[in-house]
# Entry
Amino acid sequence: MKVEKQTYRIEEAAQILGISRQTAYVLARNGELPGGRKLGGRLIVSKIELDAYLNPSKIKTVKE
# Structure
């Protein structure tokens, strides 16, 4: 069974966003990178949150 990756490294997120690695680190540290989180001593980016930020029209809404 193949497990799908749920997070990006900062470098991967930077490449996806078309920004420098350094800028991505600054944004993540400031809480401005969508899905950016500190896990232990590492900064990671939630794939789901970054994808939702980049593709807001694909977000499913739940109607009550």
About this structure: The two ends are 36 Å apart (CA to CA).
